[in-house]
Amino acid sequence: MTVKYIESCKLPTPFGIFDMHGFEDGESDKEHVVLTMGDFDGEEPVLARVHSECLTGDGLFSLRCDCGAQLQAALHKIAQQGRGAIFYLRQEGRGIGLLNKIRAYHLQDAGADTVEANEALGFGADLRRYDMLKPMMAHFGIQSLRIMTNNPRKIEALREIGIDVTERLPHETGRNPHNAKYLETKKGKLGHMLDSE
Ligand SMILES: Nc1nc2c(ncn2[C@@H]2O[C@H](COP(=O)(O)OP(=O)(O)OP(=O)(O)O)[C@@H](O)[C@H]2O)c(=O)[nH]1
Ligand SMILES: [Zn+2]
After folding, report:
1. 61 CA → ligand 2 middle, Å
2. 133 CA to centre of own chain
3. What is the enclosing helix (H) or strand (E) of 107?
4. Catalytic residue check, 128
5. CB 71 within 8 Å of CB 58
6. Is 36 in the pocket of ligand 1 (CB under 6 A)?
7. To test the ligand 1 pocket, which listed residue (28, 47, 50, 52) has its Cβ within 8 A of the most ligand atoms?
8. DSSP 8-state assignment for residue 56
9. Cα–Cα distance between 71 and 55 in angstroms, integer?
10. DSSP secondary structure letters along 108-155
11. Engineering a disulfide at 174: which of 25, 66, 100, 178 sits with its beta carbon 3.0 to 4.6 angstroms away?
């Protein structure tokens, strides 16, 4: 696993001023980003969001998913508490990449759900990996995470690679008429813990 820390800078946001740290992932050739606030001295678990890239939701205001709202809610919560980290992993489209995600959305426009569309394109439902997190956490001296997520498989995947997840904080936000079916599929086929209707 070759993950190399490159550089840091300030990132002022509407939620507060974060520090942004850039990492180069030799395995995937991707550039990951970590936004942090506060210091991570001591053993207190760190409030964290492990967020996979969604250009459409995070940057282009798409209502097809809940990613943008989840990212904003995580920034807001960390700023409120004054301590935490967002690991922004460049694995667009659950790992299939942006252009394949557009292909998958095209199939979804014709009626497929998010899992069926991936499978029709010859991909598994979720190709993400999380092993790059360990060296990134080690860089900051972060030992354990209180993680904002609704995805039990993400927590399992983190624990399988030896990351200490001490707590799951429900992270339900951004429901709208355009993503109702998408969220239903996440709950029904991918096991997401989504309670509100
Ligand atoms: N292939 C594919 N990827 C999608 C689709 N919609 C969103 N994504 C990607 O899914 C990733 C986010 O994963 P989600 O399954 O929405 O949520 P999660 O991160 O596993 O779980 P939470 O922590 O609860 O948000 C991002 O990389 C998005 O680009 C879709 O319809 N097809
Ligand atoms: Zn999204």
Report:
1. 9
2. 12
3. helix 98-109
4. yes
5. yes
6. no
7. 52
8. I
9. 12
10. HHTT--HHHHHHHTT--S-----TTHHHHHHHHT--EEEEE-S-HHHH
11. 66
Q: Are 53 and 94 in contact (CB under 8 A)?
A: no
Q: For 3-91+128-190, give the CATH class.
A: alpha beta
Tens-of-pLDDT digits for all 197 residues of the chain? 699 999 999 999 999 999 999 999 999 999 999 999 999 988 999 999 999 999 999 999 999 999 999 999 999 999 999 999 999 999 999 999 999 999 999 999 999 999 999 999 999 999 999 999 999 999 999 999 999 999 999 999 999 999 999 999 999 999 999 998 888 888 898 888 988 65
pTM confidence score? 0.96
For residue 91, which atom of ligand 1 is closest to its CA? 27
Between CA 126 and CA 124 the distance in angstroms is 6
Residue matched to tokens 């092993």: 131
